[in-house]
Amino acid sequence: MKNLFDKTQLGKMTLENRFIRAAIGEKPTLGQVNESILDLYQGLAKGGVGTMITGFTLVDENEKNFPMMAFYNDTFSEGHKILTGLVHSYNRNIILQLVYIGSYIMGDASGMTILAPSAVENLNTKVVPQEITVEQIKRIQQKFADAALRAKNAGYDGIEIHAAHGFLLSQFMTPHYNRRKDAYGGTAQNRARMAIETYEAIRKAVGADFSVWIKINVTDGFEDEVSFDDVLYLCKELTEKGINAIEISGAFSKFTKDATCFFRKEAEKIAMENNTAIILTGGNTDIKEMTEILNTTKIRYFGMARALMKEPDLINKIKEEQ
Q: Which residues form the NADH:flavin oxidoreductase/NADH oxidase N-terminal domain (predicted)?
């Protein structure tokens, strides 16, 4: 019988258990890793989390006004090296999540060029962005690749492409936001092109042995959202191209406060059809249900964020109770 505390292998990484700290925003100092971030990850490492995904990290200086970690040039390298060294001293893994925000802006956007697949008002921020050009698409894909290589050189065990939660790569998949008529819009194949090409650019930069993950939405929570068939297409293409793990997430708004394992049904289907590691994130609070999922489906890992914010030592407590 499989156990949530099994030691597993994912590519060249050894994972101490099946618990993944899912990304949640941190509070850096002008994009730099600071003492509060180091304290946070030290607490998670001491608390038993086997593998941690950082809060989203900016790949482009154009978005530097947003209050989150950044790695768009080498001036951020030293802080990231300190962070990875700290986590590794506890024999844990750390994955750097990379993001381009787009029209789902956070913080001061004055004087910035806000880009999106199409010039469609953002449902959350009410920002009307500029439609991104193909030249800008290629530039941003290279920004992801450059940041991924910096992450590798800084000692991260891998990177995660943030293609969920309404940020730029997620919007390319969503018909509501993507109304393009070119090779990046229309069909599922075209709308998936941005995420696939971003992955390919990263893989070319970091090589075959470095772990590359992606986080995707299986639901957007509004009309004209991404379809599950579109999601299956994206997962199939990425799996065939060598993605190491796919984290399953989506819109939480439709779930009650008592709901658990929010995207189980979708993650089960994706895991059944794709020979890559699937991480189920969202509402993972019932250990019995998680253990049952582990032993009756092909889902291998479980992402947790808010629960670990409340109790950084939660994983140790769960282990003690078993």
A: 4-321
